Amino acid sequence: HHPDDGNIYTAIEAWLHCMRDPDFFLPPGKPRVLLSESDFTNPMRKDGGGVLIPQGIEKQYDFLYVNQGGAWNDYNRNFTVAKECLKVMAQMGLKVCVLSKDLSVDRELAPYVKSGNLVIHQKELWRDFLKVIESCRAVFTASVADASPRVVAEAMSLNVPVMMNRHIVGGWKYINDKTGVFFTDHHDVRASIQKLRSPSFQAGLSPRQWFMDNWGPYKSSLRLHAFLELVFGRARLEEVKRAREDHRN
Questions:
Q1: How far apart are CA 243 and CA 249, in angstroms?
Q2: Considering the entire predicted model, what is its pTM?
Q3: DSSP code of 40?
Q4: Residue 3 CB: number of other CB atoms within 10 A?
Q5: Rounded Cα gap, residues 90 and 185, in angstroms
Q6: Which residues contact 98 (CB under 8 A, 6 or more apart)?
Q7: Is domain 46-213 annotated with CATH 3.40.50.2000?
């Protein structure tokens, strides 16, 4: 970390955060609210850039795993754990769409690419990527370091449940019996998959409705506005609003 980071953290008056245990990361005595960028995902979006309303696309894959390759992606998408879990999925006979890391060059995973259990999908424009999400029965999120996994909010908007790493920094608040399941590593991923795919659990899933009931741009904006008003006061917010409008003019 940069030596000035501590001074910056101390100077910040209030925090928006995504963590289970903010006391471990944030300075004491400062106002904070559990609010992430992904909370503002609009499940009603429908334009040329992309559609987050389910389109009735036929399911082709059991899971989607996003990792575009390279050191940063392997770290952020937790490929060390994901790789072992992908083996389990393939051994269970599942079909996993991988976007877009080339697993055919991985000695341990290449046989599963050849068998058709791991299907490498090329990188897409965002509007087409959303169609890939909807073509999957669930999204597999192995990440731990991810602060706010946007793909999870996008999947839920498209009514696709999520299997998420229990130790993820941000996004954990999205997972419940209506949206998906947690797993830890390759030792328990089989049990998590079986739970997610069981008819009784499937009957209770409604990820899109849950996300719309709890998050999205309107509800998240209300949370943010209420937090800022409590912390800074209405007069200061109005002053900032006027300054912004003056700057635009």
A1: 10
A2: 0.94
A3: G
A4: 6
A5: 15
A6: 65, 67, 86, 118, 119, 120, 121
A7: yes
Q: Give the residue among 156, 172, 171, 161 at the shortest CA–CA distance from 198.
A: 161
- Which residues fall within 8 angstroms of residue 48, CB to CB, at 6 or more apart? 127
Tell me how far apart the alpha carbons of residues 206 and 202 are, in angstroms, rounded to a whole number. Answer: 9
| CA pair distance 51, 43, nearest whole angstrom | 8
Contact of 215 with 113, CB cutoff 8 Å? no
3-state SS class at 63: strand
Among 163, 83, 154, 147, smallest CA distance to 124 is for 154
CA dihedral defined by 58, 63, 64, 65, rounded to 10 degrees?
-170
Domain assignments of the chain as residue spans, ordered by start: 5-41+216-248, 46-213
Report the sign of the C-alpha dihedral through residues 60, 64, 67, 69, in that order.
negative
First to last CA, the chain: 39
Question: Which one has a higher pLDDT value, 241 or 198?
Answer: 198
Backbone φ, ψ for residue 241 (5° rounding): -60, -45
Asked if 190 and 93 count as a contact pair (C-beta separation under 8 A), the reply is no
- Displacement of CA 6 from its chain's centroid (Å): 28
Can you tell me the distance from the alpha carbon of 41 to that of 52, in angstroms, rounded to the nearest whole number? 9
82 by Cβ neighbours in 10 Å (0-12 / 13-18 / 19+) ranks as buried
CA 20 to chain centre: 15
Inter-residue contact 147 to 153 (CB < 8 Å)? no
Q: For 185-228, how does the pLDDT look when each residue is reduced to its tens digit (9 = 90+)? A: 999 999 999 999 999 999 999 999 999 999 999 999 999 999 99
